[in-house]
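Annotated sample (chain length 93).
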Amino acid sequence: MGNSELLPYLFMAACAMSIVSALLFAFDKIMALAGKRRVPEGYLMLSALCLGSFGSLFSMILFNHKVRRPLFYIGVPLLLFAQIGIAAYLKFL
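Output written by the structure step:
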């Protein structure tokens, strides 16, 4: 199986992880507002790293969540650009 044949599967995995990541960020925001136990930041970043960066960034903007933390407002967009770059590289390799 060539690189370009893997792209649809990577895209589906990225869509699924983006949904999971967005739900994690939404849940963390709800818990923060309720003053209850939160999702650890490491889990949020791990979900972004595992192809969920689009969902993470979407949730950060939508819920105005984690937008003041440099790890997130710098790290998540960088992960997104890196993942897009890797996908483009695989597409045109």
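Annotation: The mean pLDDT is 94.
Annotation: DSSP finds four helices and no strands in the chain.
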